[in-house]
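Problem: given the chain below (129 residues), write out its structure.
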Amino acid sequence: MSTAPSKALETFANPAPDRDYTIRMRIPEFTCLCPKTGQPDFATLHLEYVPDKICVELKSLKLYIWSFRNEGAFHEAVTNRILDDLAAVTQPRFMRLTADFGVRGGIYTTVVAERQAPDWRPPGKVELP
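Solution.
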């Protein structure tokens, strides 16, 4: 497998496709460039999804995230692009990407983007005694 940035996202079969379960990932080293100044922007990405038939493979996700390091992008655009790319390859029941960007000009930005399959509804919350 490559050790260079790549836009190719790999997948594998969901080992429990008959069950709703959540996969959560924390990606603390996301970087891209400010499209106005060219200076680096830093973010921690929080990916949460309920897989359907397939899951995203972690090494390819790492290389995909790395591929943004030298690209200029507004926070809103890059967050939505990453969500769209991940949802396109995994076709999840539900996916949420939260991007917590570091300070730029005295402002912290958090962008949250979601996608839900039209026929999926989240199960009710279970309250245990």
